[in-house]
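Two proteins follow. First one:
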Amino acid sequence: MKYSHESVAAPSLGSQAPTPDEKFAELKFRRAESMKMGGHAAIERQHHAGRLTVRERIEKLVDASSFREVGTLAGTGTYDESKRLVSVTPAPYVAGLAKIDGRAVAIGGEDFTVRGGTTFGSARRKGGQGGFIEDLAHHYRIPLVNLIDGAGGSVTSLKRRGHSVFPGVHGFEQSVQLLGEVPVASAVLGTAAGGPAGRAILSHFSVMVRGTSQIFAAGPPVVKRSLGQTIDKNDLGGTKVAVDIGGTIHNAADSEDEALEQIRRFLSFMPSNVWELPPVTECNDPVDRMDERLASIVPEKRTQAYNMHRLVRMVCDEESSFEIQPSYGKSVITMLARLNGRPVGFIANNPMVYGGAMDVHSARKQIHFMELCDTFHIPLVFFVDVPGFMVGLKAEQEGTLREGMRAVYVAGQLRIPTITLVIRKCYGMAGMATCNKNDVDLKLAWPSAEWGSLPVEGGVAAAFRKDIMAAPDPAAREKEIEAEFKPYASPFRTAEAFAVEEIIDPRETRPVLCEFIELAEKRLRSDVGRKARYGVQP
């Protein structure tokens, strides 16, 4: 909803009941006051800091002219001695209904130009700390987009309210419930702490901007007071910490425009709610396309790395991939893409980082992505090249085994169709986290595949240690035993026993996956439709 930014004079209302014309004049004036936000100087400071205003962000993100604002008149009026309205300071939050790619969304964000986006003390909140915008997403079953640029509550509210409130008065109940109902996407576009920071975490997808965005439980002043540490806000909660190291926020962007585009890309894969299926788009990439480069992408030397990102993109629809958490837990790749226009989640081990071994960070990353796909009925495809859990002192100190087994647990709870394709290695308990035993348990493999509890080399060294050490030439004896066992590790021996369902030519990967994903969509449509009719959550 757009209103004029031009200056409008305050209505002159007499002591008598206002006429219809006077009421319209007051409405026009109040609307104009809301469009001023925090005033020209505050808007200039926002721009000078390299940040857009909340209205500019909404305008860039949503479909043209689709924003229907709610709560335009909320704020604090200033009146003269005759009780006549002089000015209005708008509430520091802008919210309403809009469309993204033609689909309805609930959208809201703090207006940092008004009191730094701090909480507005009204009986009902517009958003930021729960309130109307979350209710709108919940009751109409539409995605929620949070544009976060505020620190939530302020200590000044103590004096205004006259007492302190117990944590949870304005709780996160609705925020938590929404995670099981509709897609929630958050962009941290300024400094976020307190409640807004918490809600950024309670999202299916989050993004922040390098250099101009920070997020933390508490900012530098609180850190200095509590711990005596002096630290810059970027060093405390910038993208290097929050995205790359901590994984607190999923993705980083180089600009606000890019961050908003990532929100659009993410939502393009999502259904409007859990009672619907993800949108299928038109695909011009042939289903039967067989890329010859796949036949030679895996090196003959088993310890040599290769580009798994490239492999995934050679199989999925062209220009359809969208990676989530690309700079965190990099030994696994989590990517949304399409196969013949149908949304698919790809989980692929990355041999360029730790040889593809699962560490504590990649385990957490895989867990989040599996839960995301499971919630919104997006079939999963595993491209497996995992030698096992990360080992060593650091891995044990970080609790890799616990997080790795949690990944196994979540994989064992999946309700969505899942395909496992072993590209090269699939060993140990980490290999268990790539299979869905609740589904048909379809396991495919390339001829380069190998699997087991552990590789022949390490297994021989452990099982035959005494024999090897007693030999005149221990190294030669170890090689001799390995050669004896090596033929049994052939994937074709496993296929003979139907312990792997099919070994395919790498060039057949796209046609095979497209066919099974089409079947998966038909099954999901039946399941979701049946559950929606009975009014239960899938």
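Second one, unrelated to the first:
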Amino acid sequence: MKQFINLLKISLNVNFGISALRYRFTREKKRLWEPILIFLAIIIGGGSLVAFFTMVLYSVYAAGVFMNTPEIVITIGLLASQFVIFVFGIFYIISAFYFSNDVDILVPLPLKPYHILGTKFLIILINEYLVLLPMLIPAIIIYGVGTRPDIAYWFKSVFIMLLSPVIPLIIASVFVLVLMRLINVRKSKDLLMVIGGLLGLFLGVAINYFAQRMSNGNPDEFMQDLLTSRINIIDKLGEKLPHVLWGTYSLSKPGIEGLLYFALTIAVAAIAFIFLLWLGNRIFYKGLLSGQEVSRKKRNLSAEQINRKTQKTSNPVTALFWREWKLFLRTPIYMINGLAGMIMVPFLLLMPYFSGSGDMQELISMATDPQFITQATLVGLAIVLFTASINIVSCTSLSREGQTFWISKVIPISPKQQVTAKLLHGMAISGIGILFTIIIIAFVLQLSPVRLFTILILGILGSFLLNTLNLIIDVIRPKLVWNDPQEAVKQNLNGFFSILLTFVSLIIWGVLSALLFKIGIPEGWVYIILGLSAAILSVPSLAILYTLAESSYRKLEL
């Protein structure tokens, strides 16, 4: 047990950078503004999402009161949070259990398999609380304020929130352990991660589609049918997901009955965790070590082929550009996170169109009306810029190099050329999003070719500026120390700053457009001014990027 506790302390220190934060707060007091600014940015950015989800939960609670089942708000909160934990937890578990950099260090140490497995599981669990608590706390508060239960409710709610992600994560962990033991995943991990990521994306799109198909896209009608039929949703969910039912009843049932459900939830979570450690102790190392030896097919090259390969040269920027593409495609977590937003946003825009929503059809009719065609064009441009900039490619460009950043420091290529290649790679990814979104806009809004071409040009100019600014963010504060690739993108606040920067830029361009129209500037000139503003701002931004790159590449150390 002592070894397990010591390993857990070290892992927590590494995962959250506790020693680095302590040093910053005690020694580098000039940089105290950074964590404070990050905390405020998280509160402001995440607060809007939590507020929206809270309003949804309150509507669910109000409907539950009419059905005489107000506890449904707890059920929905548990269900939504655990679904997110399970889906994304699979990828985190695969990455942390089998492909993190510290695995090769920990395995030779005198540690039991369950020491390593249990520690990594608890680290993932703690990280998942950052996602779960903002989704679950509003449901707990809404039900507690609305029904005014006794003090035992608030006491039990703390433990239910702490235990709620345990069972879905254990199910995901058991699935991963068995999968790794049965097949040689290490040889095909990239393919499996890509397939899994795409399945997750399509699952999210499918859920959104069927949610909007309910009652022909009329939520009020669906809720009315629900209230009329008095469907016992909680019991229906309990048949398929009993742990969600236990969590709901442990909080909503009074007296001994609630305590029994509470004890059952704790007992099942404890037994499931013990089973996970037992299973991991038997098969974790076997699955981890399988497939370590990789044999390559021998291929004899002729002298002519060798000369052709060794004499072939290319421009340094071009070579680095293709290196960026290869690293991006060879690391599934990078590719999934880089392309997810550009795939999801256009499809989410299409879902209301295909669901036959009356409001959506009315909105489309208004957008195709010549009277509102200008507004439709500007909205289309905003969607294009948002979709093209939501990827995490530019804002994690240096971070993704991680421990291999020393190669960039020693190769005889200037930092200016290296960041130019990264910028071009980011623009290439954004270009895919721009073209994809414009095709969707052309299909839905049926804009003229001239307007679509205008959106394309302005989208490219705006995207270039945003990619330059996002790359500046990563040059200033790259995350080079990480144990597995998902940390470089999932636990990197640069992605949050990138989205925040995109929103601020869109608001500024929106206000500028409104002011130009208000003073009577013709539509064509408004587009020209927007394009010129993006192009002019790109020049000093590019100069700042090159200046910072020259200094940062010299100062950065692993």
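SUMMARY FIELD: Confidence is low (pLDDT under 50) at residues 214-219, 226-231. DSSP finds 24 helices and no strands in the chain.
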